[in-house]
Design brief:
The structure is a homodimer of 172-residue chains.
Chain A (H helix, E strand, L loop, with lengths): L1 H11 L9 H9 L4 H10 L5 H8 L3 H13 L3 E7 L4 E6 L1 H4 L2 H14 L7 E5 L6 E7 L3 E2 L6 E5 L5 H11 L1
């Protein structure tokens, strides 16, 4: 948590600090421009070296260095030296970074539907059987969620009492 | 597409324009700071009026106005007047906006796991049966995806040939 707060503070000035919300906390870590695309390139494009990310995104090296450092400090990537004189590093995703796959696929599916007039740019398939992969909303009770309107949010154990009360009154 | 490009150009200077990627295109629309939290508040917090969003996020009114206008221009929200003298509006999600539910839930699940030391701040349940809702990676071939490492990305029909070749060579 300390690392998270320090990172958020350094990178975003704790922009979303007043938000008791896991989506907001996720955005503190990956909401900075380019950051999520770096995770995407590491996950799906085989990017590991500084130059791999640079080739893929074509952004200024100082911005790229800041973003990669932020991912390392936020615990999403690990930096390992693979050469001395000059010192060269690879950036490897940690479990915390690898588990961003569902977020990227959810974003991709939305973009495929609403912002891909020429067809899907990328297809995701299952390395085990070759089948097409997608994200689905599922219900532990009855299995399927047919419509996003069927999703209801309510305060959980991690929400302070006064905020929970406000959230519940807003819904009534 | 024209609306998307105009919006992206106005809001983000076409930051990700070189990226043929649906996740990047989604970020063009909702990657600006606060924007995704506005969608969250409209989806799950019952926010409709300018003042609803302001109360929830506590951000400067000029930033809030710019973000809401951006969501309207990007086709995620619709603005409707509900009073004259003074003119007052509600901001209602379109289908395009409502379909962001899976992205927000995927972000939430990641944040719950990696950035919620006090427990989940918000729980999502199914209005139909009350069951707990989650996002799952599924495979059209064999059903389940046990590990994010089992997801492979390859060029789809919407990717220009030369970029597809580069993507394939990067994987080889």
């Amino acid at each position: 948590m300390q690392v998270l707060l320090r990172y958020a503070s350094a990178m975003l000035g704790k922009t979303y600090d007043s938000q008791v919300c896991s989506a907001a906390r996720a955005l503190e870590l990956v909401g900075e421009r380019w950051t999520l695309l770096l995770v995407r390139d590491a996950l799906f494009g085989g990017a590991r070296r500084f130059s791999d990310f640079q080739k893929s995104l074509g952004i200024a090296t100082n911005i790229l260095a800041t973003r990669l450092d932020g991912l390392v400090e936020g615990g999403m990537m690990e930096r390992r030296r693979y050469s001395r004189n000059p010192d060269l590093y690879v950036y490897l995703l940690t479990d915390k970074g690898r588990e961003f796959v569902p977020v990227i696929i959810a974003l991709t599916e939305w973009g495929d539907r609403w912002a891909a007039p020429d067809g899907k740019p990328v297809l995701y398939s299952h390395t085990v059987c070759g089948g097409e992969i997608s994200q689905q909303l599922t219900c532990a009770g009855c299995g399927e969620v047919r419509d996003p309107a069927e999703v209801h949010a309510r305060p959980g154990p991690g929400m302070p009492a006064e905020m929970a009360a406000r959230m519940l009154s807003g819904h009534s």
